[in-house]
Amino acid sequence: MKVLVAADAEWVRNLVRAAFVAPGQEVVEVSRGQDVRKAFGETEPDLVILDMQIGNMGGVATATDLRLEESGGRLDRAIVLLLLDREADRFISKRADADAVLVKPVDAGTLRRTAKRLLAERSAPLV
Which residues, 6+ apart, have CB-to-CB distance to 52 below 8 Å? Predict the structure, then answer.
């Protein structure tokens, strides 16, 4: 599994790295939202984890950018997990069309379980 994480806070990137250290897992890191589209196209991650605060282009704007690129046929569908700063951010996160949201602080186990669920949902046959 390949995970792309975008966060300007080093502790968030460290948390994601710690959650995905098993053999066969790789974490690609960027610290700016505007770098996500290029990194996604180059690395083709299975999961994109976006921190709500990423410099001058936050998680919602970055997720929206990925969805626009997808709808234009320029990128494949991204599985997006948004890391929110507070419960009240759930409202604005709906605009991003994220596949899942978690409110920080989160632990490595929660990240792994959420990733596993999201990837299983993606590979489940349509009924």
Answer: 58, 59, 60, 82, 83, 84, 85, 89, 93
